[in-house]
Amino acid sequence: MNLSGWREFWEEFRESKSGIFGAALTLLLILVALFAPLISPQNPYDLTQLFLEDSNLAPKWTLGKFMLGSDGQGRDLYSAILYGLRVSLYVGLSSTAISAIFGTLMGLLAGYMGGKTDAIIMRIADIQLSFPAILIALVIMSLWGQGLFKIIIAISVVTWVFYARTARGSTLSEREKDYVDSARAAGMTSSAIMLREVLPNIVAPIIVIGTVRVANSIILESTLSFLGLGVPITEPSLGSLIYEGYQVLFSGFWWSSVLPGLALMGIVLGVNLLGDRLRDVLNPRLKR
Amino acid sequence: MNKNANKILEVEGLKTYFFTRKGVVKAVDDVSFDLEQGQILGLVGESGAGKSISGFSILGLIDPPGRIVDGRIIFQGENLAAKPEAELVKIRGNQISMVFQDPQTSLDPVFTIGFQIKEALKAHQDISNAQTQHKAEELLRMVGIPSPKQRLREYPHQFSGGMRQRVGIAIAMASDPALIIADEPSTALDVTIQAQVLTLMRRLVHQRNSAMILITHDIALVGQFCDRICVMYAGRLVERGSKEQIIKTPAHPYTQGLIASIPGTQERRRRLRQIPGMMPNLMDLPEGCPFLPRCPKAGKDCTQRPALVDIGHGHQAACFRSQAS
Amino acid sequence: MTRDNEISRDKPQGIGGNQLPSATSRGVLDPQQNTSQSLLRVEDLIKHFMVQKNIFEQIKWQDGRIRRVRQVVHAVNGVSLAIDKGETLALVGESGCGKSTLAKTIIGLHQPTAGSIYYGQDEIGGLTGRQRLPYQRRIQIIFQDPFSSLNPRKKVMEIVGRPMLLHGITDKAGLKDAVLDILAQVGLDASYASRYPHQFSGGQRQRIGIARALACRPNLVIGDEPISALDVSIQAQILNLMMDLQEKFDLTYLFVSHDLSVVKHISTRVAVMYLGFIVEMAETDKIFAKPNHPYTRLLFSAIPTLEDLEFKDSTILEDEVPTPIDLPPGCPFHPRCPYAMERCKTDFPVLREIYPGWQSACHLNDTG
């Protein structure tokens, strides 16, 4: 995009306070997660630093170790949340990236080529969509076992369909436009046309969906972790933290479940607000 | 010509501005014209000239951020610009109707044609259901649609473009209006159908002794079907006169350039005379004549806004250099 | 990319029961004609589309039973014509007459259902992909809609430059200069190359489209209503540009339009199409002076002109333009023709030469 396009985009974007808030929140949490090792008082993965007698300490609300208390394994909750945020964001962003790329390419192929290609791809998508996402992810993870990489793949498998549908719809309408005919008349191959001509014009709705789906992916991962099927215990995500904390919740140790939950809420809220605003800003521009 | 012709509509100094985030768009800037019974007035201009907005302004159909800023619209003795919405509603579709450009979208696709015509009839007249059927059939016959009884039961998608436009005309004529405003009624239609539709409208206007404003960008069209022509440019009225005067002896350089640039007026295969440049952005119009940057006759005094100057026999042009060419 | 509803080459369909003798046997195309003169030749070209794209759409509930409906759009029905180097042939007709489809089939956007297309001596109708590439360079197209014909995400430099790279007109090093040169030829400033389409007006965009078409120095340029979407004063500019470029680059034009005054001005020959058939074809001044075919006469009389301001009250125009799905038997125009005879309802009038260089498809020419 050119410079004036970005400037116009930014001017329109910043008109909405919720959009700014969402963007700021998301950005903040991403930065915090990135710099987690630098700002957390303790490395929660380092088992040598953990002492069981430190477990389930109440929040001290003072800066430093155990500011937010500790969890059932003696981990400083603040550090655990920061690292957990990292894992959650990593899973959310990478699964979104993978499924968005794969799904968009599939949708583009289906929409542009039409005929049998379209039929096959869309039937697969339809079949997959008829099962609840969680169910599919559950089946995959229970068969495959735990693991960070595995859960990213599982979530990607579940979510590519949404991108494919959107991409296909956009492709169908772009395909009818004269500039595509012009490219065909000029002698460009189909794959060149799909990738170079059509693709740039269909990414806008994909970006919007992608932003929002990051939140969904994080929740999906959290749910799976909560159910014990997600990331390994040694590298807890927010979901696993919530899960573990849940087990001691009714003993009165509310912080180890609620506080990670608030962090999760924060990232989901931020990303959703950002995505909402992006959709509003990008949509009218599409019609220009 | 009708001996009892009197003025049905007088538009004086109409100004419709749009107040957008980026600035004020002076879509219609001091436009005046009038219309007698039995007459067809052509409002001609290219896209962005303000002709459609002028038509919509008459009926008060301007949505925010636009509004009528100044001017009077005298219809049957009353100033429409000063009327509240509630009263305008009673006039719309009743004494003043509108025919729109796109027959595809101006009819509701989920209701039958019969339903829509009857709805229009009942809206403004005290009429029984049995009578609406009869009247609707009569209207369809009037616009030249065969087998009206059968067709009233059909849906818009079962009609062709030309037929749909005729239905639009039928609906517009349902209440026997004194004035019809037709906004590019034939632009979306094929050429032969265009001729049919406009011939029909002209015939109806003469039969009923009503009046019509034909808004279009096609000068040849107004030359065929209108009695008087107003030429608009960048929101201003630049020339006004009878059709012979405007087309045979245009006085304003824009009109002259426009007519000269239409193929058919010149020797075949020769370069057409063209007007250089483009219509200016309506948001930052300079102080003087809006045509100045493109005008071959521009002079130092053109930085003043020219008013309409009388050239004779009801022919007027907004130009300091105006003289019939 | 296949469009679902295209009918492939090996399944020709009949045309309303009419059998057409070949173009050469009717003398429409002279096999001995100087083929070195004809830049492009089309012989008995047929293009049909299926309305229902697959079995699911074909099954309908009609008249109380389930029926299989297979409707065909007879877009182009046995069209034959030859375009000579340097001329401007205009294709006129109303919507549904098949002129756009014909243009798009010639340029390769549609595969012909039957018939042949010759560029010079080479048959190009069935060619695709790599084989078609050298011809793609020589035949270019300008589209009607200045808004959708340019990719909104590409800069002008890329829009105009890509075909040049594709066809090897220039390499990456020389691209910039080549693009700026062609932009200058169409009257666009060099700074426009780094901008995006939405920053331009309709007329400027159409110039970009023309630049793109000319980038590969084609021989034949097809204009599919290239000025219809523009304002009148801009139309004149673009028309002048096209005429200047024709002279400068020795171009041949196939000009598709419904605007007769433009056609009259710019073309050397006119072919009138109706429901996929050519009904009349002749030199421009001759056909405008004395149109022969009843449809041509109807069409020409319906166009308002500035010369004659006299209002013509026409009562003959009570019907609508029929669709190319259900072609009437016999002459396609007979339902609307004021001169229709009994014969016209059953006998298909073949396009024949009535005077040298003048062809018409009407039984009225047979008498005497």
Report on the structure:
The complex is a heterotrimer of chains A (288), B (325) and C (368). Chain A has 288 residues and is mainly alpha-helical. Chain A has a single domain, classed as MetI-like fold. Helix content of chain A is 75%, strand content 0%. Chain A has helices at 3-13, 17-34, 36-39, 77-113, 115-129, 133-144, 148-175, 178-186, 190-226, 238-249, 255-286. The longest helix of chain A is centred in the first third of the chain and has 37 residues, at 77-113. Chain B has a domain at 7-233: Rossmann fold, CATH 3.40.50.300. Chain B is built from ten helices and twelve strands. In chain B, strands 6-7-8-3-9-10-12-11 form an eight-stranded mixed β-sheet, sandwiched between helices. The radius of gyration of chain B is 21 Å and the shape is globular. Chain B starts with 6 loop residues before the first strand and ends in an 8-residue tail after the last strand. Chain C is an alpha/beta fold and 368 residues long. Chain C has a single domain (38-366), classed as 3-Layer(aba) Sandwich (Rossmann fold), CATH 3.40.50. In chain C, the strands form three sheets. An eight-stranded mixed β-sheet of chain C has the order 8-9-10-5-11-12-14-13, sandwiched between helices. Chain C has a four-stranded antiparallel β-sheet with strand order 4-1-6-7, covered by helices on one side. In chain C, helix 7 links the parallel strand 9 (220-224) and strand 10 (252-257). In chain C, helix 4 packs across helix 5 (172-185), helix 4 (156-166) runs parallel beside helix 6 (202-214) and helix 6 (202-214) runs parallel beside helix 7. The chains are: A mainly alpha (288), B alpha/beta (325), C alpha/beta (368). Chain B binds chain C through residues 46-47, 144, 160, 162-163, 190-196, 199, 202-203, 217-221, 223-225, 243-244, 247-248, 257-259, 261-266, 268-269, 271-276, 278-279, and chain C through 94-95, 201, 203, 231-237, 239-240, 243-244, 258, 260-262, 264-266, 268, 284-285, 298-299, 302-307, 309, 311-314, 317-318, 320-321.
